[in-house]
Amino acid sequence: MGLFDFLKKTKNEVPYEKINKELDVFTIASLAMPKMNNPFLLDDQSKHPMIFAYFLGAMNHITQAYELKEKDKTTIYTQYLSRNFASDNVEQAEKLLKYSTDLCQEDNSRKDIVVGELAMKRWKAGGSMAEYAPMGLMRLLKT
To answer: How many CB atoms neighbour CB 36 within 10 A?
Structure first.
């Protein structure tokens, strides 16, 4: 085994496609319940900080689970926000990334972030309770 073989084995490839798919499926499942119960609930701008904090928590769990470096974490966040909340507009996604970062600093958002982290953790764990994990957003919005 040469030096270059060793370097290839120690470099971890980030499974962007897998991570993106997990986040997208979780997001669709999480947003489905509020849409079914009250189609206008997600349009209520007073609920947007809770929604973003919830999904920020889900992204936090994913980045921890995959042990991503800061650069990869930012890439995942930006791609996720662009696909799911900014209609693939990179400029808008960067604004949402800044908004999410600011939101993370607010004390009243910490609970919502933790709810999102726990929901994603349960979702990724699988098993009989996994299908109920995305209901965390619905419970959060009803409070």
So the answer is: 10
